[in-house]
Amino acid sequence: MNDLDTQLVKYLTDAHSIEVQALAQLRKAPDVAGAPELADAFREHLAETERHEQITRDLLAARSAEPSKLKDLVMGFGGKGFLLFARLQPDTPGKLFAHALSYEALELASYELLRRVAEQADAPDVVDAAELIGGQERAMRDRLDGLVDIAVGAALSAHPRDDVNTLLPKYLADAHAIEEQAIGLLERAPGVVHDPKIAEVFSSHLVETRRHAASVQGRLEALGGDSSSLKDAAMRLGALNWASFFRAHPDTPGKLVAFGFAFEFLEIGGYEQLARVADRAGDAETAKVARTILGDERAAAEKLAGVFDEAAAASLEAKGVQSET
């Protein structure tokens, strides 16, 4: 097996472990979705995901390989751990919605990268599978994107004793914490990827993200609230730990771009909800800020999708594998 084939097997192993985590989440997600429309979406995608797991397993078997028991175990526990976290939040449906939107984006990005590596390796069976699964992940992401109003209604219903004016500062505090996490990641990303085009995407979005954090902080102060220093510190620590993880992997560019793309959709899910909560609270200024930031996050996601080619090539180069095109 040549170096390119070896890397293809590793990408397939990663894809399988991602599907294992998705299954761990999707099997329980309908129970905490908070709305029948969301529950139905999760149930229907569960059936697709079971098929995805089998496809990646079969592709590995065709190459005399098998899934990584360790990666699958870690990812499976990670999926269950998130659901436990979501259950402990007062707005479980909202947290679940944003995470699910982000996870579909992570899967989509992963299969976009897998397809590019498979094309290099002249593996048409993997190319076809990546296109099929990637298309279904994109469709699920878009389906969830169209259920924001349902998710907000379900999340607010989980707060029967709180009105939207009381909840709005909490949504803003969550948004500020996520921006702090994004800043931590974006500050380190250009020094990790070593590709000028990818680095520029991260660097330019860092400038935007600092502005986003300041805007959210301003709205918090205007409402008499304050960001949670403890929550922000925890988010920043998470960013530091992820950066260390990426540095430990030779194919960092691909993993970092895929994660960055997914993180944009975590923010998109959060700001879509924040804008609607602000609308319900009659706070036009906060709604405007949320929608302005939302536009930047969607644009950043598009820019990251635009460097998937570079990310795949840079990842192979980091492994010492030369492009064959």
Q: In words, what does this structure look like?
A:
By secondary structure, the chain is mainly alpha-helical. It has 2 domains: 161 residues, Up-down Bundle (Ferritin), CATH 1.20.1260.10; 159 residues, Up-down Bundle (Ferritin). Helices cover 84% and strands 0% of the residues. The radius of gyration is 20 Å and the shape is globular. The two termini are 19 Å apart. 50% of the residues are buried. About 4% of the residues have low confidence.
Shape annotation: globular
Strand content: under 5%
Number of domain units = 2
Beginning-to-end CA distance, first to last residue: 19 Å
Helix content: over 70%
From the coordinates shown, what is the CATH architecture of the largest domain?
A: Up-down Bundle
Rg, Cα atoms, Å:
20 Å
What is the overall number of helices? 13
Query: Low-confidence parts lasting 5 or more residues at pLDDT below 50?
Result: 76-88
**What would the average pLDDT be, to the nearest integer?**
86
**CATH first level of the largest domain:** Mainly Alpha
Q: Sheet with the most strands?
A: none
List keywords for this structure.
325 residues; Ferritin; 2 domains
Provide a short characterization of the protein structure.
The chain has 325 residues and is an all-alpha fold.
Describe how the helices and strands are arranged.
Layout: H1 3-26, H2 29-32, H3 36-61, H4 69-87, H5 92-120, H6 124-145, H7 148-157, H8 164-193, H9 196-222, H10 229-247, H11 252-281, H12 284-305, H13 308-318
Helix pairs in contact: 1-3, 1-4, 1-5, 3-6, 5-6, 5-7, 5-11, 5-13, 7-11, 8-9, 8-10, 8-11, 9-12, 11-12, 11-13
